[in-house]
Amino acid sequence: MESATMSTTATIRPDEAAHFGQLAADWWDPNGSSAMLHRLNPARLGYVRSAIDKHWSTDGASLRPLSGKRALDVGCGAGLLAEPLARLGAAVTGVDAAAENVAVAAAHAAGQRLVIDYRHGDIADTAFAEPIGLFDLVTSMEVIEHVADPRTFLAALVARMADGGLLILSTPNRTAASKLLLVEGAEALGAVPKGTHDWSRFLTPEELTALAEDCGLRVVDITGLSVDLATRGFKAGGSTALNYLVTLIRA
């Protein structure tokens, strides 16, 4: 639900919220406008699970390694990551800038009999975020390149981390390859809706690392998200030229 006392939108870009809100209706269609996210999701989930097991020394065979923990997914869209986190045992809160996404996410979770606390708002607005509390795991996938101020956004994520917490991000890299393939190619071919990406807003791993350190974080791992030619999907590992995943903890 939306906070009645929300007073600022420090990181939300209204044009971005409107763009993604228009995609909400078919977010869960693997062949729809969010097809690229569906292709990315298995690799992202595998990376998140590996980071969880390493950070908390959990059994890789455990079905619910997040049991007893709270997880926050910021920029949750319609719940592609939030739902698996709930299945891993976490008490999940999902936050998104588009009210349409929150509505679709809540309806889909209910249909799956999953209890997820979805909220519409800006995580950088303390009047909105502080009542939510702190979280053991904070995730934000393919979001930081869409916000108004990446540093403010990252600091807001850090503010939601509990002691000993884990933060995991993914984002496109700003390279010639990503401009050609993710922006010019994917949007021209219809694999990604037109206007989804602004290449100039992509962050390199070095830039994101500097921002993280400025926010009191330490980078534990940077892993590329690269094309898997065998499956025509994506895999965690290989080059960071197109996209990459980052695991962070408090310094």
What does this structure look like?
- By secondary structure, the chain is of the alpha/beta class.
- The chain is built from 8 helices and 8 strands; from the N terminus they run H-H-E-H-E-H-E-H-E-H-E-H-H-E-E-E.
- It has helices at 14-21, 35-56, 82-87, 99-111, 126-129, 150-159, 176-189, 205-214, and strands spanning 70-74, 91-96, 116-120, 135-141, 161-172, 217-228, 233-236, 243-250.
- The longest helix is centred in the N-terminal third of the chain and has 22 residues, at 35-56.
- The protein starts with 13 loop residues before the first helix and ends with a strand.
- 42% of the residues are buried.
- Belongs to the methyltransferase superfamily. UbiG/COQ3 family.
- It comes from Sphingomonas lacunae.
